[in-house]
């Protein structure tokens, strides 16, 4: 079966599943979220995110079962004096049908250079590093997601100083999904774990779901 025949067949499947081609557009902004927790001792900590936006683009190979999107977000956490915290942030990706997910983290971030995640069907994970046009180093691990499974992808981790606010600033976080025959859902998460002499705690916020 040649490439043209495969593409036509996938196009027919996409129409049957209600999938349509994605055209590039401006970033779609989304609502911020924030939570503040107060312990019985009066110790407080806050976790949230803001500046979230997404820009879906048409896949380079034109396949209707592939999706690509660029994600922006600013994740943050605040801890009262006398306590420390660990801020963790990322995205949850899910598709109702078999898929391969690839993620690249470019130079437009407020922390270390990026990584790439995807799946090539190999029995052993593959790892590679190099320099791209955005001048960032990257390492990649291949993963698979079973139908209906939710796969988390970590953007970064940051230690918070006592009484301070810390940020993870992520821009143009590239998500590429292959062989997704149904709706693709992406949702951001921000988790803050704190510790003080009297209190240990944890809180999380989740962004509104993105449907592609």
From TrEMBL:
Pfam families: MspA. Residues 1-27 form the signal peptide. The keyword Signal applies. InterPro entries: Leukocidin/porin_MspA_sf (IPR036435), Porin_fam_mycobact-type (IPR015286). It comes from the Bacteria. Gene3D superfamilies: Porin MspA (Ig-like beta-sandwich domain), Porin MspA ribbon domain. This is MspA protein. Keywords: Signal.
């Amino acid at each position: 079966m040649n490439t043209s025949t495969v593409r036509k067949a996938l196009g027919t499947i996409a129409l049957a599943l209600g999938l349509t081609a994605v055209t590039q557009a401006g970033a779609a902004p989304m609502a911020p979220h924030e939570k503040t927790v107060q312990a019985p001792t009066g110790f407080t900590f806050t976790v949230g995110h803001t500046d979230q936006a997404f820009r879906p683009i048409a896949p380079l190979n034109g396949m209707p079962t592939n999706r690509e999107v660029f994600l922006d977000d600013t994740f943050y956490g605040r801890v009262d004096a006398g306590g420390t915290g660990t801020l963790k942030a990322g995205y949850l990706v899910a598709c109702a049908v078999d898929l391969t997910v690839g993620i690249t983290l470019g130079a437009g971030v407020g922390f270390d250079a990026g990584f790439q995640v995807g799946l090539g069907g190999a029995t052993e994970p593959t790892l590679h590093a190099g320099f791209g046009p955005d001048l960032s180093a990257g390492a990649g691990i291949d993963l698979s997601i079973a139908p209906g499974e939710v796969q988390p992808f970590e953007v970064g981790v940051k230690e918070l100083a006592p009484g301070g606010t810390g940020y993870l600033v992520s821009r143009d976080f590239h998500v590429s999904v292959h062989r997704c025959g149904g709706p693709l859902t992406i949702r951001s998460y921000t988790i803050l774990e704190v510790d003080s002499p009297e209190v240990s705690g944890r809180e999380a916020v989740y962004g509104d779901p993105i449907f592609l």
